[in-house]
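Record pair follows.
FIRST:
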Amino acid sequence: MATGLVYMLKIVTTRLLPSRRLTFAVALLLLPHSAVAADNWIEVRSPHFTVQSNAGEKEARKVADQFEQIRNMFHSAFSSMRVDPAQPIVILAAKNENTLKLFLPEEWEVKGHIHHAGMYQPAQDKDYVVLRLDTEGDNPFHTLYHEYTHALLRLNFSNLPLWLNEGLAEFFGNSTLGDKEIKTGTIDPGHLYLLNQSKLIPIVALLEVDHNSPYYNESNRASVFYAESWAVVHYLMLDEDARKKELLKNFLTAWTKSGNQVDAARETFGDLKQFGKRIESYCKQGSFRVGLIKEGQMAADKTYTVRGVSSGEAIALRGDFFTHHNRVEQAQPALEEALKTEPNLPFVHEALGFYHYRWHEIEEADKEMLLAIKLGAAGFAPQYFHGFFLMQESGYEGEPVMPGATSILEKAVHLNPEFAPAYEALSQAYSHSPETQKQAVNAAIKAVQLDPGQLAYAINLAFLLLNNSRFSEARIMAQRILAAATNKGEKEVANNMLQHIQQAEEWAAQRATTPSSVQGGRDSPNVTITPGPAGTAGPGTRPGWQSN
C-alpha cells in the first residue's frame, strides 16, 4: 500500500451514421475476427480491475499490478476522494501492434495517423482501457493516465473549472511507475519550453476558459492553455509554500461556497496579477519538486483470479468494445461471429443487447438482455438495462409501471450499490405509486450523491421533492441547478422550477387558511410535474456520440 508522498528535487534542463449494409460488408472483409479467436486470451481480476490479454498470464498480472499502483497513487494524493467508479474498468492489454489494430483499426485507416499506445474509453455500464504492451518510451501511456484522471475527477466534482480539470490530468498524466515507487508531477519539457517561449494567459482569463474559448482545443494539447494549467497545478501541488498554505484545498473550499472561481482565486491567491507573475517565475526556475509515492509489497498473487477466455467471448469482447468506442457499425460482424461460435454465452447476448440499444432498437435490446439473464449473467448491467427498458415501455406520464420493473431495478442496485443510473431509474419506478413516494425521493437523493455532475438527476430530484410538497428542499436543489447551469437552456429549466415551487407554496399556504367548506372542488394549480424521458439519463448514448 502507498505510504504517502515524499518529495525530491529534480533538475530540469529546458528542451452522420453510415449505411449499415455497405459498412458491414466492408467490415467483414477488412476485420479478421478469427485473428482474435486464434490467440489465447486470458483474464486476470485484481481487486479493482479486470485485465483481458493475449500476452499471457505474467503480463496480464503485471498490467493489473500497474493499475492498482495508479489507483493507490490517487488515493495517496487525495485520500478523501472516491477512486473507484461504479462501473467496472476492463483493460484490453494487446501484446503487439497487430492486436491493437484489431481494436483501433481507425488509427491505421489514414496514412500518417498517430498510433496511440493506450486510450481510455469511458461509458456508463463499463469503462474500457486499451493499451499496447510492447510500446517503448519514457511515458508511452501519458494519454491513458490523463483520461483516467478525468474519469476519477468526474466521480468527485461537478463542473470542475476547466483549467483545474486539465491541469490535474496533465499533472498525473506525467506520472511514471517503478517497482518500488511512483513519481507524480514529473516535469514535461514540452510544456516548460512552450511556457518559456510564449506569453502566458492572464490568470483571470485562464480561470474563465471554457469549452467554447479560443484558448481551449481538446485536439491540441501542445497549447499554452494546457501548459499553463499544468504549471499552476504543479505549483499548487508541489511548491513548498503553496502546500504549507494549502492553497489548492482552500481554493476548492472557497469556489464550492461562492460558485465564482475568480472570487475564490482572489480570496485564496491574493492579487491575481501578482499570482500570475509568481507562476511565470515558477516556470523559469531550474529545479522542481517531484512527488514520490513509496510502494510496499503489492497484493499477493492469490488475491487475483485467473481464467481462460473462450474464443467466442474474445470475439464478443471486441464487438462490445466497438460499440462502446462509437464504432457501432463495426460491431455487428464481430457479435454475429461470437453468436455463431458460442450461442449460449451470456456475455454475447449482453453485448448484443447494448449494441441494439445504441441503434435505438429497444425491443431487440431488451430481448437480448433478458436472454443473458436467463443464461446466467451474474453482473448488474443486464438487470439494469432490462429494468430500464421496462420503464421505457411504461412511459413517464404516470402510467402503471410494467410488472417486475421495480424488483428488477432493486436487484441491479443490490448487485452494484454504487451505480447511480440504477437508483435514478428506480426513483422513477417508485414515483408511480403513492405508497412509495418516500422511496422514490431517497433513491433520487442517492443518485445525485453518487453522480453530482449529472444535471438530469438533480432535476428529477427537485421535481420529486416538489411533488411531495417538500418545498424548501426543492428550492435548494433548484438554486444549486441554477448555480451550476452552463447554458441558457439549463438556466431556463432552473428558473421555471423556482417559479413552480413558489406557485406551489402560495397555493399550499392559501389552502391552509381557507375553510374546507370554501375549498370544495378546487384543485391545486398545475405545478406538479412528473419527470419524463427528457429528464432521464439513459444507459447509453446514440451512435456517433464522441467523448472528450
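SECOND:
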Amino acid sequence: MTMVAIGKFDDGAVLISDSRASYELPGKLVPNDSLQKILPIGKIRVFCYSGSVSIANKTLERFKMLNKQKKEYQYLDGIIKKLPGLLKSVFDASPSEEKSLGLSVIVGGKMLSGNLKFWALHHPNFIAKPIDSHCVIGSGSVVKTYLDKEINNIKALPNLKAKADNLMVGLSSELSKYGVDSVGGMFQIVLVSKAGIQSLNHGFIDLDPEASPNSVYMNMQNGQWVQHDLTKEQEVPVVTPSTFLTQQISEKRVHDYVPPDFSKKEPKWYLNYFLTSIRVRIEPDKLEFHHPIVSLVSYEFPIACSMIACIGFWGSAGKEKLTLILEKDGEKKILGEIPFEIQYFPEDIDIQIQLNLIVDKPGPVFLEARIRDKPLARRVLYFESVEENEPKPDEERKILIEKVGKQLQTNLIKQVDSLVESGKPQLVYFFLCQDYKNEDEIESFLNQFWVSYWRQYPLPLYCYIASAFRIATGKHDIRIDLVNAANHNATVITTTSMESKSSCLISPLHGRFIIQIPEPGYYFINTYVDGTLTASCVLIAETDEPKFSYNLAPEQIRQIQNGELIKLLKRS
C-alpha cells in the first residue's frame, strides 16, 4: 500500500509519498521499495495515487493519450472536470482483484488563473474534493492525527523548503511509531509553487561511531528518483507504474519505518575536552585556556581555590543537563547541574562552570562530568603541601619552584586513579585543527574545523591533531583512524605506542598529518587506546555543491571551483 500526504500553504504545497509496493503472496507480503507515486503532469501539475498500481497506470496511459488529442486535458481547469469520469470508467472496467485494492488520487497544481489548487478523489465514485489545508491517502493514513495537530505550526515556518523538512521529519517519526509494514522506502518529496515543480533531495545517516552503520540518500538523477543505500553500496531506482508492472516479483527493501528499540539505541555523547583553567576564551578561530590547572601547592590546608571547569562535547540532540561531581577519598559531592540543549546534531556544546573549592588536605581529587548519570569525562586535580618557609629573594623563590616541581612530579606518579587502572582510559582533549600553541601559560587550539569544501576528490587534508589522555601505568598502543560514517570503512591515519608512568599523569599525543579523504561524505576521526574507542570527532567532506552540511556564498563557491580548499570552522 502507500502513504501520500499533502500540506497546502500560502506559498505552495508539499507532497510526500513513500516508495513501497507490496506483493501479496500466499502466506507473506513481499515489499518492493521502487515505485514512483508522485508523477508530474507537465511542469506545473502533479498526480499522486495509492491503491491499485494497475488501475493508476491505466488511468495515466489514458490521460496521456487524451492530453495529446483534446485541449481540455492540457490545463488543470479542464483536467479536474474530466478526471473523475475517467477514473471511474477505468476503475469500473478493471478486474475485481484490482478493484479490491481500491484507488485514491491527489491531483493539482497551477490553474490558468495562476492559483494553486489540489483535490482528492476516492473510489468508487471519485468525486473531486478540494484540499484546503492537508490530506493523507493510503495505509499510512495513521499520520493524519499528527498533521491535524501540527499543520498550523508548519504553516508558520518561513519558506516551503523549511515546511518540507519539518513534514519529512514529522511523518517519518509518526510512521515509525506505528510500524506500518506496507509503507517503506525513501520518501519522494515534491514542492509545488507558482514557479513550478521541484524535487527535494534528502537522506539520513547514523552518526554514532559505536553503532552499526546506517545511511541512505534519495536524489533526482536525470528525471528519476534514485535511492542510495550508502551502507550496502547499492542503488535502487524508483520507476514509473508502467515500468514497475513489467518487472518480476522481487523483494527490494531500502528502508522500514519501524518503532525504535530504545533498549538498543540510547542517547550518547562524546567528549572533546575537559580542562580546568583560570580563564577560557572561545572564538571561531581559537580556543584558549589561560593558566591551565592540573595541580596546586599550598603552605597550609584547608585551601580555598577558584577555577573554571571547561567541558566540550557532541552527541544526541535534545535538552539534557550535565552534572559535575567532586570525588575525594571515595566520597562524592555534586558541585552543580547545568542544563544544555543540542539543537543540530552533531554540533558541539561548550560549557564553563565556575568552581570554588575548599580542599582540606593534600592529595588527589577527581572531577567527574555525567549526563543521565552516564560518565562523560573524569579529571584529576592534585594538591601538594609545601613545608618550607616562603622565600623572599627571587633567587630563593626560583630554587623553591624547581624543587616543588620535582616534588609534584614525583608524588603525582605515586597517585592512582582506580578507574583508569581498571582499563578505562580517560580523554583530556581531542582536537582536529590547523595549529597548536602553548605560550605564556596559554594553551591554544587554532582554527578547529569540521567541514572541508573541495572541488575534486580525493582530498589530501593537511591538519594538526592534538590529543591527550590519562592511561593506566605501562605501555599502550594508540591508533587514529579515518572512518566513513556511511559504511564504517576505515583507513589508518597513524599508529604509535605510548608509555604512562601514572594513571594520574596526562600523556599528550600531537602531530601534523595528511589525511586522504577519498570522497565527499560524513567521516569520524576515531582514536583507539589498546583497541578501545577513546575519542571521536565528526569531519564532513563537501564539494562546490554541498549536500551534507551548509551552503556557501557564491564567491566561496567560485573559490572552490578555482581549486581552493575552504574549511568551515567550528562555532563560526
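COMMENT: The chain has a mean pLDDT of 91.
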